[in-house]
Every structure is written in structure tokens, then in C-alpha cells.
């Protein structure tokens, strides 16, 4: 019996329903707490990238952040479902089921398990600015197309960050964003036009509890 066989029922529950050829956006994060900017980014990506679904991958913990004030995974997932409020946005705790901590490993798993789906990794400009610090970031870029959503005033810093410079020749024009899901990686697009500055950090109290949202 393989490791996958041992947790197969849980995997089926953690993987949202899909059909061959669907274009799926992947939005990973702690969602501590989830908020309307997560929803706005997802709806924006659904439209601009012509996606069928966006999966919110609620992580057990971010390796680049202090997870001391992280709320329980079940609590964050439940709150994410409440905030998402759209049938095209699916909530998944896949990483806790398959035991991955790094995005590169999660993407590798999804490409093996759901090879007939077309995935796009979605990130905000703030994440592009630190993308070069992610574990195996070059591998991520080589495995799945990436959509970066502008988050002013971080635009200049993000587009001049090491990863953006290294991947500059693979950037496609924003006018071709709807074709991104069908392109072979590496390929990425920078999407402008969404003006929302909410952040999870700004929605947490000093003691780690969540403000009303």
C-alpha cells in the first residue's frame, strides 16, 4: 500500500471536484483570517484568466512567517468558506492531508494527481517581491503558469525583485491573460486594475485574535 492509498478517502475530500480540462487557479495562504481581498482577487482572476474555478489552499503554516498566532486549520477553513461565498471558489486543506509544507511540493503533487487539469498559481504583488525566498521557486515557475495581481503601492518593488527580473523573458502581455492557463510553463502575467489594500495582518489584533470581518 502506498502513502496515497492510506489517505485516499481524505484526499478525495481535500481535492475539490473537477473534470478533465478545467482551468483551475490556485491561491495558497494561511488565510489567518480570510478576507474580502482574497475573494476579490479570486473573482478578478476568474474573469481575467478565464478560469473555471479557484481553489483556496489553506496551509497548515507558512514557512516564511511566524506561525505562533496561527488559528486552527479547521477554523480558518470554515471562515474561508464563509468569506468565499461563490460556488466557483473551492476551499481545500490538501496540504495538511498530504503533508506538504512548501508550494513546490504541493504543485508537484497536484500535477501528478490531476494531470488533466490546467493549473495557474495566483499570487499578489507582495508575494512576487519575496518569491525568490520561496523553497525551489525556480521549480515552481517551471511547473505552472503564474498570475501576479497588482497590489499598490508594492508594484515597483515587486517588478524589480530578483524573481521578476529572472523571469522577465517569460512574462506575457496583460492583454493575453486569458490564454495563460493554456500556456506551457514558465509563463507569467502581471494583472493590474484591482484596487484593494486589505491584508490578513491588518485584520489581526496584537494578541493574534481576529478583528470583525
Task: Please provide a written account of the structure.
The protein is 35% helix and 15% strand. Strands 3-2-1-4-5-6 form a six-stranded parallel beta sheet. Helix 6 runs parallel beside helix 8. The longest helix has 13 residues.
Within the largest sheet, what's the order of strands?
3-2-1-4-5-6
From the spread of the alpha carbons, the general shape counts as globular
Q: For the CA atoms, what is the radius of gyration? A: 16 Å
Low-confidence stretches: 1-9, 200-211
Strand content: 15-25%
The count of β-strands is: 6
Share of helical residues: 25-40%
Q: Structural class, from secondary structure content?
A: alpha/beta
Mean pLDDT: 86
The major β-sheet equals: 6 strands, parallel
* Number of helices, where a helix is a run of at least 4 consecutive DSSP H or I residues: 10
Protein name: Probable nicotinate-nucleotide adenylyltransferase
EC number: 2.7.7.18
Function: Catalyzes the reversible adenylation of nicotinate mononucleotide (NaMN) to nicotinic acid adenine dinucleotide (NaAD).
Enzyme class: transferase
